[in-house]
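Objective 1b: paired records.
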Amino acid sequence: MFRGSFTALITPFRNGKLDEKAYQELVERQIAAGTHGLVPCGTTGESPTLSHEEHMRVTEICIEVVAGRIPVIAGTGSNSTEEAIMLQRHAKEAGADAGLVVTPYYNKPTQAGLIAHFRAIVDAVDLPVIIYNIPGRSVVDMSVATMAELAAHPNIVGVKDATADLARPLRTRLACGEEFCQLSGEDATVVPFLSQGGHGCISVTANIAPKQCADLHNAWIAGDVAKVAEINDRLLPVHDAMFCESSPGPVKYAAGLMGLCGGELRLPLVEISESSKKKVRDALQGAGLLG
């Protein structure tokens, strides 16, 4: 079972190229802060604009630096089933613990198409899959019934739920069982998500506040509701700021402010506006993350 705070890692660039040294340092910082797991090459890692070679290298660096200390769920999804199989196969060979496979975007498959897509991937590569259900970006929404059908496959072990539907984790638990891992894809609603049967969160905010995010999940597991509420209150303005524009624009700006890496983005993403920069700075200062 994947449980706790998983960071959806940003991918640092320098002059348009992957900044390997900065990326290695980001991974080490996450482990030192107590993060429970890492997710390279997700939406926050700008996977749509990584070349295949870059995508695979980012995954490899993450796994090499982690060296088995915490789980790595590598982003391997695509709107092309064959491409997803290729990336899933690479993740297995590189030593990932699972692949995060997004519902195919732009193609707009039916529920039957989603079943065929995911079954093709897990039948081709013997590596666990976390379904990434994010209707806001991929247009399609995998139904609970479809997820339950896929959950019967031994290699489909959970979901990253970015639907923002807080009844969904309860419905999914009842349909798919307690052992089906549910990770939230939305920082701001993680506490109610956990209360409805969730097990953790794949977090954007954890890029800049890894200890606080990990502490929240540790407190939840320990049953310390007061501590959960205190951390959640302090982080909410940060969560909101991280999504004041399309992610990862705000979190990369925040990482740059904190000296973690450069804030460089790849087109078609561009630097966030001055008003958004102020929101990010104010949120970081309010949470004690920036002097």
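Objective 1b, second protein:
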Amino acid sequence: MEEVTQLEYVNCFDDLYEMFEKVKLKQRKGSNNRLGFPEYRGAVFGLTRPRFKYKGYLEPSLDSRTHPHINDEIMRIGKLICPFEFNSIQVNRNLVCPPHRDKKNVGLSLLVSFGKYEGCNIVVDNKKYDANCRPLIFNGAELEHYNTDDLVGTKYTLVYFTQPN
């Protein structure tokens, strides 16, 4: 059985919340979205594979290049709360995701949510967690996870993870 670890409450998201509220994250749907996920707004920061032709390496994401001040803040927070190496960060706004595994991730993931919201807890391996400013560490490639569908308000989620080279 895989392990899930919940860290202590952290209060370091106010500046990032204000930054996200001032930009319009890209709408994710159709071919730009994972099969079975509803439409939502999101972004990828850190490193990613080149979109149209993978060249055998990772490069800074378009979102990192477009919003360097947000990238810097996400990386600063990652250094504070993430106890393992990561190279990518998925950002979701108000996403209520269906049951899934992140099959392309390598090793552990850290998920943390913040904002002015209630509900929308994460369920990992059939156990419910409140990740509001309380980071959760688990292997997203091996453990099925999803959100409860009772979101009220504005919720941002950061997922720190590693993509393979």
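The domain at 5-161 is CATH 3.60.130.30 (Double-stranded beta-helix). The first strand starts at residue 5 and ends at 6.
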